Model the fold of this input.
Amino acid sequence: MSGERKSSWRGEAEGLANRYAVASGVAVTFLLFGLIVVPALLRERRAPLPAPSDQPAAASVGWLDQAEAPASQGKDLPPVDPATVLTANAKLLARGEALFKQNCTSCHGDSGRGDGPAVATLNPKPRNFTQPDKWTRGFRVTDIFTTVTTGSKGTGMAPFDFILPADRMALVHYVRSLGAFDHGAEDPAAIAALANQFRSQGVHIPNRIPVSLAIKKMVQEQASVPPLKLPADDDKSEAAELLRRVIADPAVAARTVAATANRGNLAALARAWTAGVPGNGFSTALTGLHLEEWHALAATLLGADVPEVPSLDGGAP
Done:
């Protein structure tokens, strides 16, 4: 009898163990599903932030990379109705949030507390937008708009004037929304001036290319300019003696000549060339030339571009 009971208890224990193992497995499965799968599904279903237009894509890592904005063609935009931008609304806040994440989080952090990844390299530290303390200009709408537009001297806050004015205002509203404190009343005169600025001024967006591409193009253009050809040693003419006296580096001087503006104004040409010696390929002897020598030099290096009448209008260099 005792053997049958032991066998029965053993069977029941094994059954309970099996059921516990199954239940544990199911619980672990649900836990993993809740921790991994559900958040992933929610992220996929979440509506993306509106993509800012007319903004440099490279600004997604913050103000440090504004110079590498992608190439874009310039255009003219009409003035903005101030009633559409001066008062915060859901559309402006969403736009401002997108711009903030593109341009500001590297310094100010995702929540605007001044704790972005670049904070260790900045002194003074970036502004904490959630607190009312120590704002350089203040936290009214016009104050923040001015700071976003002109930057803050002596800090890491660079001008963000490349962002369209209406978008800057959206950014202002979002920055203010990060602080729950009382931002106080606006200055009516300052608001009126800002409204008039929006109402009366359109925006010209110039052509843009990244600085690295501009440098590459400059190097290519300079490399394509052949060095100035100095006269032979046995050439004892006045023009030959003048060139040998004033040209220190024929290759660099050739690039200076090729880049010369105001070719029809001898005085402007003289000021430009003398201001750059000796780094522009000309020697310091250039600064001592008299009027006839300047005309002869310009005629030799620029040919038909030099003024027909020898003149240093505006004074000799």
Notes: Residues 47 and 158 are 31 Å apart (CA to CA). Residues 226-305 form one domain.
